[in-house]
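User: My instructor asked us to take a sequence, write out its structure as tokens, and then describe one feature of it. I'm not sure where to start. Here is the sequence I was given:
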Amino acid sequence: MTNRAPGASLWNDDAELPQLDELDNDVTCDVCVVGAGIAGMSVAYHLAREGRKVVVLEREGIGSGDTGATTAHLSSAMDDSFLALERFHGEEGSRAAYESHRAAIERIGEIVERERIDCDFRRLDGYLVLAEAHRDQPEMLDEELAGARRAGFEGIERLDSTPYERFATRPCLRFPGQGRFHPLRYLAGLAKAIEASGGRLLRADAKEVDGGTSPRVATTGGRRVSAAAVVVATNVPFTDLVAIHTKQAPYLTYAIAARLDGPIPDALWWDTEDPYHYVRFQEARGEGGAGWVIVGGEDHHSGHEPASEGERWQRLEEWARGYFPVASVTHRWSGQVMEPVDGLAFLGKDPGSDDNVYVATGDSGQGITHGAIAGMLIADLVLGRDNPWTRLYDPTRRSLRAGGEFVRNSLVVARHYAEWLTGVPGPAGEVGDIAPGSGAVVRRGARLLAVYRDEAGTLHERSAVCTHLGCIVHWNDSARSWDCPCHGSRFGPTGEVTHGPANRPLGAAD
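Assistant: Let's start with the prediction itself. The structure tokens for your sequence are:
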């Protein structure tokens, strides 16, 4: 297998996803779901099974957003640690978080069995391994073990070494009951089940949502979908200006898939580095060989810490080769996660909209299980049923214990608004300095321009002002995108929207 261009994940190689028909006329339904990633498809699946007439709108294709860029860990070991969740939400909240993520893994397994989805679903152990840099801090594991047990995690244990020889001397925590799967094959199975229940999956670019007694979704193509309820599941909601965006921050994360030259245990792995590494195995399908090791990490705030092309992937490869029998790296990709100030997703009624509009965002590095939770929780809300996790994930919540994180996020945003005056840090400040296939923010008089030079040498100039709330975008050399460091909007090299909350392309340069 040859190396792919950056951006193509391993999952894209063998997933047969249905093609979407265009939304070519106004339609009416019970529930309109915007976004066909794990959250939107899970909500649609549960509601369609309840007999609701569901329409899913997707701008690109099923799983084309950050679900297709995940490493697909199914984890009830919390991304932000049980200690942090207990600090933000108390012992009761930490317990509810664990129970919801455990239930998410169970529900995915039930759906895989019920719908006979061939997606390599496996239950397995997860290991939190003490990093080399923390060898003199074993209390990190002891404290997390105590927090996990207070949350009700049964069967967790501390080991003096891992079952993998290259981590043999490392103390670790073993988390039973974790899982993994092929995310796009799972979505393909959900799509088939949704359509079998009468749901429709349509291509359309939603630009506006009106709530109230008669909700409707307007698209850039001029079509409208009328519904009794609307669910916005676009990773970052485009329906809010500030209601949610002030409580979460965008982070980029990177991943590689490498063919193995020998076996490794089928398990999930995390270390205690900051940012941490996360690892899993994926078997080869129909072509033999030892399969792949998938390694993720190198997380950083979107628009921050500019790095040369491939540098982050190179660091991941070097780390992987130190611990696994890597033959060759075949895939490199990146994705964006939204980090809430208190460690948990925002799932429920949209605080920035009128009644009957719901939102799913803030995955905090556990997008797959948070998406599965959204399917259960939001379906219950739409159907008027009680759900035990409604309060925990309420998008209107304000955690006083997370006030420090809120202030830090606000200061970061303020610093980026100041770039109107100071300019954007980066190696290139003049058009002539921009290499083919790269971009830079250039000042021209009082204006800041996002200038991209394509591989043929042609320049493409757009306004550098994000069309969401006016922050200045930064060039991401690895992903070849313009990223907004304030609220997570992302644009293609020539200014087209690829991720909300912005729903308009970068403006003209003049």
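For the description part of your assignment, you could build on this observation: Residues 82-115 form the longest helix (34 residues). Try explaining in your own words what that tells you about the chain.
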